[in-house]
Amino acid sequence: MVVPGSTRERILDAALTAFGLRGFDSTSLDELAAQVGITKQAILYHFSSKQELLAATIELAVQELGGALSEAADAEARGFQRIEDLVRATFSLAARRPEVLGLVRIVSRQGGAASSKLASAMGFMLAEAVKFVEEEMSAGRFRRLEPRMLLLAVYSAVVGVATEPEVMRALGLEPDLRSLVRARRETIEFLRAALVAD
User: How many C-alpha atoms does 154 have within 13 Å on its Cβ side?
Assistant: First the structure.
């Protein structure tokens, strides 16, 4: 998380929150400037355009997501334990900083240059995840599936459950901390049943 300090950091933090919770197109630079307590020209001094601000915000979101996952990843953990640790860390981040996963979700859906930047920034994490899943399949701890499709399914399940409050409401669940904890538990059990080899 960026600790508000410099003007640039405050702009990035406000942009991450706004883009991640309201969306890029629904956020104007004028609104951001008012929120930070500066002028629009001050934002454009630090970031030459709204697109450049989005690119920097994506880097910040990926950095925060990567940091949360790195802290949770025990290099010695094998099998489903590592998956469970990462799912718990992702849900914890969703509770603490919903805008981080919100931005990842929004940008990945919209396609285009921002989506390509996100994919590039997440490339190393995903390559490591594919390697881990392949090793676990070879060791017989995970079912034999196509690793990249498996990771896509895991990503969709975890990020979808952690970041879709309107879907939760439609299902009769209030998107509060209690529901998030329950959703985390159910997601972990769903993934365990899908991944762990019999």
Answer: 26
